[in-house]
Write a structure and sequence with these properties.
The chain has 460 residues and is an alpha+beta fold. The chain has 13 helices and 17 strands. The strands form four sheets. An eight-stranded mixed sheet has the order 6-11-12-17-16-15-14-13. A five-stranded mixed barrel has the order 1-2-3-5-4. Strands 7-10 form a two-stranded antiparallel ribbon. The chain is elongated and about 85 Å long.
Length: 460
C-alpha cells in the first residue's frame, strides 16, 4: 500500500478503501470503546482524525500514545460522523513507531517564540513553524520558476571567496592556519602559508560572480547562502542568510527596477494562491492586517522616486524620527516604513542614491554625486531589495575602487570583464528571509530561517 500524504487525503472528493498514513500524534482522547487520534505528517496545517477501535489487538498500547509519538496507520478514508472534519480514518492497524515521553516539550499550548528558539530542532513540529517552513519551501520553488520562465540561467556562485563585494569588511575568515600559533610576516598573519595562499572569507554576495556569467549567458541568477560578521542583535539581522541575486546584460536601471517590481508582485501573488491555509494561520494569530498588506503589494503599481525627493518628503513630514535624515545619509527602517505605510501606503522604489553610501560597483551618474542604485521598500519590512546598474566603464570603476581603498589585484578578474566586451548591465539582491517576514507577518528574522546564526548563538 502506497503512503498517502494527509494534504492529499483532506482534498479528496471520494472515500478510499485503503490508505496508509505515517506521521506524529498531535492529540489523543478516549471515548467509550474508541480512541480518537489527531495525526499530522507535516504536509499541511490540518490533522486527520484516526478512530482506533478497542478491538484492535494492541489497543492497550494505543491508549498510551502521547503527543509527539510516531505512528503508521492503515485503514479506510470515510466521511466523518463528527463535526469539524470532512474525512476520518477508522484504523485497521496502528503501528507504534516510537512513544514520546511525558517530557516532550511541545504540549498542546502556545509557546513563546523566545522559548522555541531554544529548541530550534523541535520547533518545526509546531503549527506556526511548520507553516512558516512550508511557505519557505514554496517560495524557493517559486523563485526558480519565476526566473526559468523568463529564460534566466541558474548560477552556483562560490561560498568561499577572496573578494569583499560590499567593501564593508564584515567578513568571516576562512583559514586552516593554527590560531594558537599563527605564522607571522612583518608582524602580520602570513596568509601565504594558508590553504589558498592568501586571505579567504565566506561570501557576502554572489553578485560579482553573477556579473561574470551575465556577460556571457545574458540573464542569470544566484540563490544561496551569504554571510556577514555584523555584531548585531536586532530582529532584522542574522550572520547567515539567503540571497536571490539576478544579473542582466544589456539592462539599465529602469529595466532593473521593472524586474524587481515584477518579482515581488509575482511571489506575493504566488503564495496567496498556493499557501492560503498556512497564510491564514499567520493572519489570525500573528498579523491581522497580513492579507490586506499582501493583496495591496500584489495589485499595486510601485511608486518610484529619487532619493533626494524621499529625503525631502521625510523632512517635510512633521514626524519626529529617532534618526535624523539629510542628503548623504542612508535611510533607516523607520524612514522606509513611514514612506511605505503612511505617505504612499504601498511599495516604493527609491533610486539615484549618493555615491558615498553605496558600494564601488554601482554606476556613477553624470552629476558625479549619485549612483544608479535602487532600493525596493515594502510596508512592514522596509528595504527588501537593493540593486543597481553596474559600472561598466573601466576607467571610472578603477577610480571608484581607488577612492574606496580596494586593492585592484584582488579584483583583476572583475576588471577584466570591463576590458573584454563590456556592456551595460544591472542586478539586485532580494533578501529571502525578509521576503518571508513580509509574507508571514513574522517580525523577527530568527523565526523564518531554520537554524538562525546570530552573535553568541550557533548551538544547532
Amino acid at each position: 500500500m502506497k503512503r498517502a500524504k494527509i494534504v492529499q487525503l483532506l482534498k479528496s472528493e471520494t472515500p478510499m478503501d485503503e490508505v496508509l498514513i505515517k506521521g506524529w500524534i498531535r492529540t489523543r482522547r478516549d471515548s467509550k470503546g474508541f480512541s480518537f487520534i489527531e495525526v499530522n505528517d507535516g504536509s499541511c496545517l490540518k490533522n486527520i482524525q484516526i478512530v482506533a477501535d478497542s478491538s484492535l489487538s494492541n489497543y492497550a498500547d494505543i491508549a498510551r500514545l502521547s503527543t509527539g509519538s510516531a505512528v503508521i496507520i492503515s485503514g479506510k478514508l470515510v466521511e466523518s460522523m463528527g463535526a469539524g472534519q470532512k474525512w476520518e480514518v477508522p484504523a485497521d492497524r496502528v503501528e507504534i513507531v516510537s512513544l514520546a515521553p511525558d517530557s516532550y516539550p511541545l504540549q498542546k499550548k502556545r509557546h513563546t517564540d523566545e522559548f522555541l528558539r531554544t529548541i530550534a530542532h523541535l520547533r518545526p513540529r509546531t503549527n506556526k513553524y511548520g507553516a512558516a517552513f512550508r511557505i519557505r519551501s514554496e517560495l524557493s520553488y517559486a523563485i526558480h520558476k519565476f526566473f526559468r520562465d523568463r529564460g534566466f540561467k541558474y548560477i552556483h556562485s562560490p561560498i568561499i571567496t577572496g573578494a569583499d563585494c560590499e567593501g564593508a569588511g564584515e567578513l568571516f575568515r576562512v583559514t586552516t592556519l593554527s590560531l594558537e600559533n599563527m605564522p607571522k610576516k612583518d608582524g602580520m598573519a602570513d596568509y601565504s602559508q594558508d590553504f589558498f595562499g592568501t586571505e579567504a572569507n565566506l561570501t557576502v554576495s554572489g553578485q560579482l560572480s553573477a556579473e561574470m556569467f551575465a556577460l556571457a549567458l545574458g540573464d542569470v541568477y544566484t540563490f544561496g547562502p551569504t554571510f556577514r560578521a555584523e555584531n548585531s542583535h536586532t530582529s532584522r539581522h542574522v550572520a547567515e542568510f539567503w540571497m536571490v541575486e539576478p544579473e542582466m546584460a544589456f539592462c539599465n536601471l529602469e529595466g532593473n527596477m521593472d524586474l524587481a517590481e515584477e518579482i515581488i508582485k509575482y511571489l506575493t501573488a504566488f503564495i496567496l494562491d498556493e499557501s492560503i491555509e498556512d497564510l491564514e494561520l499567520f493572519a489570525k494569530f500573528v498579523d491581522k492586517s497580513l492579507m490586506s498588506t499582501l493583496e495591496n503589494i500584489a495589485s499595486s503599481d510601485f511608486e518610484r522616486l529619487p532619493y533626494k525627493s524621499a529625503v525631502e518628503i521625510l523632512n517635510k513630514s512633521g514626524k519626529k524620527f529617532e534618526y535624523d535624515i539629510a542628503f548623504g545619509k542612508d535611510l533607516q527602517a523607520e524612514h522606509e516604513r513611514y514612506l511605505t505605510e503612511q505617505h504612499f501606503k504601498k511599495p516604493i522604489i527609491i533610486f539615484d542614491y549618493p555615491k558615498n553610501i553605496k558600494p564601488f560597483y554601482m554606476r556613477l551618474n553624470d552629476d558625479d554625486k549619485t549612483v544608479a542604485a535602487m532600493d525596493v521598500l515594502v510596508p512592514k519590512i522596509g528595504e527588501i531589495i537593493g540593486g543597481s546598474q553596474r559600472e561598466e566603464r573601466l576607467d571610472v570603476l578603477e577610480k571608484r575602487m581607488g577612492a574606496m581603498g580596494l586593492p585592484k589585484n584582488n579584483y583583476w578578474w572583475y576588471l577584466d570583464s570591463r576590458r573584454f566586451g563590456t556592456v551595460e548591465h544591472s542586478g539586485f539582491g532580494l533578501g529571502f528571509e525578509r521576503l518571508l517576514m513580509l509574507v508571514t507577518g513574522i517580525s523577527n528574522i530568527r523565526d523564518v530561517i531554520p537554524f538562525p546564526r546570530t552573535p553568541d548563538s550557533i548551538e544547532f
